[in-house]
Every structure is written in structure tokens, then in C-alpha cells.
Amino acid sequence: MEEKEIAIKFVHTGGPFGDCTDNYDIETNATTVGEFMSAVLGRDNFQTFCIRRGNGISSGDVCMAYATRGKITRKATNYDSLSSMKIAQVKVNGGWGNMTYDVWVEDELPAQDRKEFQMVYWGYTFD
Questions:
Q1: Are 39 and 60 in contact, with CB atoms under 8 Å apart?
Q2: Fewer CB within 10 Å, N side or C side of the chain?
Q3: Are 100 and 50 in contact (CB under 8 A)?
Q4: Strand-pair partners of 26
């Protein structure tokens, strides 16, 4: 079976803001979170991949992975099952080589322990 080429288009929607970041909507033919991540991994020096539950940041969000220079350095315990989820929408915010990719999925989002979220997102937890 021939592997499809994943197209990624960044559509600027806001910024630059005071911290030199910009917002983008992502247009892509990737159908799963894993396909999308593979296509953008290494595009920026530092990347955070989160799956969002609602319109804003929510306590039900899942932090899936953090990558440094094209290699995933921290990931959720259920990373593989999250990778297979179907994409509904992708947005990204960042600048200066540090981007946070927010993905909304069609599937039911599993709960993630808050300490795991913090460890994947920041590399440490808040007590």
C-alpha cells in the first residue's frame, strides 16, 4: 500500500502578540493525530501536542507529547491509542521555535491524570 503524502498549511489567524507568538489554523489531509504529528515533528525546536476537549483550555484536556529537536522526549502513557484518534480540527500557537499544537478529535477523549498532564506538558508537576 502506498503511503500518502501529508499536506500541512498554516493559516495565520492572529499576532504577533507581545511575546512574539502567533496563532494559526492548520489545514491538513492527515486523518489521525499520529499522521499529523509525524508530518510536523521536527518542524520546530520545541513542540507540545495537546488534545483539547472544549473551546478553551480545560481540565479535561490531554497532553499527548512533548518533542525536542524532532524527538519525542515525554509522552502520555496512552500515547499509542491517542495517536490513532481521528482529527476534527488543529490550531497552533507559538513562535521562536516553540509551538503548541492543539488538536480536537472526533473520538471520545479519555481522562488523563492531572500530574501526568503536567509532567508531559512542563516536565514537572505542581504539588
A1: no
A2: N
A3: yes
A4: 10, 90
**Nine-digit cell string for 37:** 504529528
Amino acid at 40: V
Cβ density class 4-16: b for 16+ within 10 Å, e for less: eeeeeebeeeeee
Express each pLDDT in 45-84 by its tens digit.
999 999 998 776 677 899 999 999 999 999 999 999 999 9
Q: pLDDT tens for residues 73-102?
A: 999 999 999 999 999 999 999 998 999 999
Q: Report H helices in the chain.
A: 33-40, 79-83, 114-122
Domain map (residue ranges) of the chain? 8-122
